[in-house]
Amino acid sequence: PDYTITVNPAATGAAIPKSMYGVFFEDINYAADGGLYAELVRNRSFEFNGTDAAGWNGLTGWTASGPATVTNDDQRLNERNRNYLTVSGPAGLVNAGYNTGLAVARSEHYDFSVWARADAAASLEVALQTADGTALSAPLRLKVSGDTWKKYTGTLRATATSDVARLSVKTTGAATLRLDEISLFPRDTYKGRTNGLRKDLAEKIAALDPGFVRFPGGCLVNTGSMYPYDAANDYPRARSYQWKDTVGPVETRATNKNFWGYNATYGLGYYEYFQFSEDIGAMPLPVLPALVTGCGQNRATVDEKLLQQYIQDALDLIEFANGPVTSTWGKVRAEMGHPKPFGMTTIGVGNEENLPEEYWANFVKFEAAIKAKHPDITVVSNSGPDDQGATFDNLWAKNRAHGSDMVDEHYYNSPAWFLQNNKRYDAYDRNGPKVFLGEYASLDNKLYNSLAEAAYMTGLERNADVVKMASYAPLLANIDNVQWKPDMIWFDNDESWGSTSYHVQKLFMNNVGDRVVPTTTTGGGVQTAKPITGAIGLSTWRTAATYDDVKVTRPDGTTLFSDDFSDGNADGWSPVTNRGDWSVRDGGYAQTTTDTEDTMVKAATIAETDYDYTLKAT
Ligand code: AHR
Questions:
Q1: pLDDT digit string (tens) for 284-302?
Q2: pTM of the full structure
Q3: What is the torsion angle, in degrees rounded to the nearest 10, for the CA atoms of residue 375, residue 322, residue 32 and residue 135?
Q4: What catalytic activity is recorded (predicted)?
Q5: Fold of domain 62-186
Q6: What is the ipTM of this complex?
Q7: Which atom of ligand 1 is nearest to the CA of 295?
């Protein structure tokens, strides 16, 4: 049937900010080390550890032949880089890089560096090679002299292209050598930056033309121990993301155990995030931990002194981003190579906390301290881990009553949910806090998911007076190390490709309008009852859950669809690919059994026009 769309060009709809659509970068799926961060050497400073991941140790990523041992003593390079390698006499070291190996391209240059000292004359021979030892570059020879730590550098040029290359470092002579921070970067990083970013990935993000970059997470920000790094004890190993750990010379950045289950070098840190945002013309939007853990950990650290330190860290971050070079943290930024301020305007406090009272008590203190010194900075609060429910209602009520600038909402749902909830923001208070949709995705990487996202984005845009920013999540996934999917951009060692969701995001970001043009639609499928086929989803957030007698109800409370599991059969329900451990039990209920995030969907045909349903599990 025909549609009639009536456009009212004279009417002035909401203005759409240039920053409406952006990206959310989190180091999940090996997005940083082995991904966007262009470093090719894995475990470059011998800091990998059995608490980072089972079976890991100081030599993970390396094969050593000859007398080479990982040492942790007071001869170390510096207090925050605990381990180094001691080599007594001639030895061979081979680094296998991330995934299948190092990706190198014929004729390209690679910048090598190492910190070293030796108790007698010694030399290093460095080269690229294949896994079986065939040379892929001419050797680089470096003489090491003196028993104090110095940085030695040189360049390798690849003679062939390979994505399974190795870096070989041979030592000669009888001296005892100490080595640390062995690094190899492609010369050709994004915009040629040193300590830079992998070009193809950075270019794909830049091609989106995002209005903002939210970083560094996610669950990464506010999980683990909230206490700062204690160098003397190399502790705590899994700590919240504290930005000061990630700035300054890379060899002084203490590594951390990542929430997503691996070591993070922090070579890609706050300076690099700001620099990248600037390079792609996007507004930087950092998120700080609020001393309350989220993401299933649900723990408040009640420690007033630590809270004051976290709040000071927030103020110091503003100084790092925007302060003059004469200020303490502005000077650090200038010494790193950026005397000009980065011009940060917006800062997030917290991520998906599920303890609303504890989070709120801290949030208002952060906000008061920031506003007192920087009234123009937008402070973003959040609404907890879910798109509805008690925590959501509680936090939204608090934010509304308080008059927060902006509230960060997150949700991952089925395509049917996105189609059915296009009107979500039509009813939001036009005078309340603005919405930052910091994370959302339809739960798969198929075309249908992306179409559902695109349809949903028209609803965001229609409400641009309330929804000020939105970012699909997660951004990146290393195909060999996937903790979460769907994702926007996928990659392996040397290739990357955008999902259909990437192309939807690109379409919207490359064509941000100036204003909403109000329209009305008559005729066509919108008015006529027309079956749609979609999916109904059940999901749970990192807790075991039991579902029995699942119902989809209409707004008036009558049942549209119901299912019990009394026959012990799944009745068409199935877990979303690789995400869940759902099963149907003999007693007639569906259950998730592990402490993880799960979603189960069932295809459904809904032959009605009003899709505003709520899903209820009893
Ligand atoms: O985007 C992946 C994760 O989803 C984020 O870390 C977290 O904030 C959300 O739950």
A1: 999 999 999 988 899 999 9
A2: 0.87
A3: 180
A4: Hydrolysis of terminal non-reducing alpha-L-arabinofuranoside residues in alpha-L-arabinosides
A5: Jelly Rolls (2.60.120)
A6: 0.99
A7: 10
